TrEMBL record:
<feature type="domain" description="3-dehydroquinate synthase C-terminal">
    <location>
        <begin position="177"/>
        <end position="320"/>
    </location>
</feature>
<keyword id="KW-0862">Zinc</keyword>
<comment type="function">
    <text>Catalyzes the conversion of 3-deoxy-D-arabino-heptulosonate 7-phosphate (DAHP) to dehydroquinate (DHQ).</text>
</comment>
<feature type="binding site">
    <location>
        <begin position="125"/>
        <end position="126"/>
    </location>
    <ligand>
        <name>NAD(+)</name>
    </ligand>
</feature>
<keyword id="KW-0028">Amino-acid biosynthesis</keyword>
<feature type="binding site">
    <location>
        <position position="138"/>
    </location>
    <ligand>
        <name>NAD(+)</name>
    </ligand>
</feature>
<feature type="binding site">
    <location>
        <begin position="101"/>
        <end position="105"/>
    </location>
    <ligand>
        <name>NAD(+)</name>
    </ligand>
</feature>
<dbReference type="GO" id="GO:0003856">
    <property type="term" value="F:3-dehydroquinate synthase activity"/>
</dbReference>
<keyword id="KW-0547">Nucleotide-binding</keyword>
<dbReference type="GO" id="GO:0008652">
    <property type="term" value="P:amino acid biosynthetic process"/>
</dbReference>
<dbReference type="GO" id="GO:0000166">
    <property type="term" value="F:nucleotide binding"/>
</dbReference>
<protein>
    <recommendedName>
        <fullName>3-dehydroquinate synthase</fullName>
        <ecNumber>4.2.3.4</ecNumber>
    </recommendedName>
</protein>
<feature type="binding site">
    <location>
        <position position="147"/>
    </location>
    <ligand>
        <name>NAD(+)</name>
    </ligand>
</feature>
<dbReference type="GO" id="GO:0009073">
    <property type="term" value="P:aromatic amino acid family biosynthetic process"/>
</dbReference>
<dbReference type="InterPro" id="IPR030963">
    <property type="entry name" value="DHQ_synth_fam"/>
</dbReference>
<dbReference type="Pfam" id="PF24621">
    <property type="entry name" value="DHQS_C"/>
</dbReference>
<dbReference type="InterPro" id="IPR030960">
    <property type="entry name" value="DHQS/DOIS_N"/>
</dbReference>
Length: 351
């Protein structure tokens, strides 16, 4: 088993990476008077019984939500809060977020506000959640106007990554995770981007040594960034590459056409193209980024959407400053910068 340490002073915690960890989950979670597991219907069907058995007679409750972004809202939060109160969970209880990014964001938010804060543990079950959303303490829910605009920074007490769960994922779900893998290469480690390019098929087929290396490498990068900038004041902003446009695409399609990773893939394509148009990167590097993105077979065409509507959605992003929209754009291999652009300065459709 591999372990990585997130160094955040009193809020520090371990990321545990290995196989068959679900059945021994109590080894990584500490003690509590009661437990509540938040999961979704898909995950519960496959792993719910196994995880409940792992608590070995402890007082544990389970709340199951419908899968997908449609559950990530204030109404669901209220329902979970009521369930926890009805079952008399206390500040000494602990919450387990068992699922992908939606479950982690939602459950973490609930933990951060229940009785002004309770301890919680991330148990991510998708590749995207294992390498990205489970690490760093961002929690939140969506509003009709924008994604993740209501939320908190609340670090988990531990992250438990069981590699075996990846075997139940569809190719579409794996590609959604690979989107964030590619992102790490563009924003931080050019050699890793080349590794992903060369080993794409092995990542998608979950070749043992390759997927272990990729997950650990991504967690190492995320751990370093979060340890330097927990609350996204500076360095952590680089993790938003592809997300300004990506979030707008999710919003304009009501979270129905794209998975999060698919939207980020399209977002990275157009944000890299913006960097090319603005002269931040040369055509050779742009083509390198595109070459990796094309391996996912995600169609980047967004001509069916009104550009001005997309930009209006981006203007609601919480990272914006005054009337400027925040973009993370590459300027050389493995490096990105934040640029604040007015609506008039945004262009991605020049040939």
């Amino acid at each position: 088993m591999e372990r990585l340490y997130i160094n955040l002073g009193k809020k520090s915690y371990w990321i545990n990476i290995g196989e068959n960890l679900l059945s021994s989950i109590l080894n990584y979670t500490g003690h509590a008077d009661k437990w509540v597991i938040i999961t979704d219907e898909n995950v519960d069907r496959i792993y719910g019984e196994e995880v409940m058995k792992a608590f070995n007679g402890k007082e544990v409750f389970k709340y199951v939500i419908p899968p997908g972004e449609s559950s990530k809202n204030i109404v669901t939060v209220t329902e979970i809060m009521s369930f926890m109160l009805d079952n008399q969970l206390t500040r000494k209880s602990k919450l387990i977020a068992l699922g992908g990014g939606v479950v982690g964001d939602l459950a973490g938010f609930c933990a951060s506000i229940y009785m002004r804060g309770m301890e919680w543990i991330q148990v991510p079950t998708t590749l995207l959640a294992q390498i990205d959303s489970s690490v760093g303490g961002k929690t939140g829910v969506n509003m009709p106007q924008a994604k993740n605009v209501v939320g908190t920074f609340s670090q988990p007490k531990a992250v438990v990554i069981d590699l075996n769960v990846l075997k139940t994922l569809s190719n579409r779900e794996l590609i959604s995770g690979i989107a964030e893998v590619i992102k790490y290469g563009v924003i931080y480690d050019y050699q890793f981007l080349n590794y992903v390019d060369e080993n794409y098929r092995n990542i998608l087929s979950l070749e043992d040594d390759v997927i272990k290396y990729v997950i650990k490498k991504c967690c190492e990068i995320k751990a370093y960034i979060v340890s330097k900038d927990e609350r996204e004041d500076d360095l952590r902003k680089i993790l938003n590459f592809g997300h300004t446009i990506g979030h707008a695409l999710e919003s304009i399609t009501k979270y129905e056409d794209y998975t999060h990773g698919e939207a980020v893939i399209v977002g990275m394509y157009y944000e890299a193209k913006m960097a090319l148009i603005m002269g931040l990167i040369n055509n050779e590097y742009f083509e390198e980024i595109v070459k990796v993105l094309e391996k996912t077979n995600i169609n980047p065409d967004i001509n069916r959407f009104d550009k001005n509507t997309l930009i209006d959605i981006m203007s609601n992003d919480k990272k914006n400053l005054k009337d400027k929209i925040s973009f993370i754009l590459p300027y050389e291999p493995g490096k990105v910068n934040e640029l604040l652009l007015s609506k008039e300065e945004i262009t991605w459709d020049k040939e």
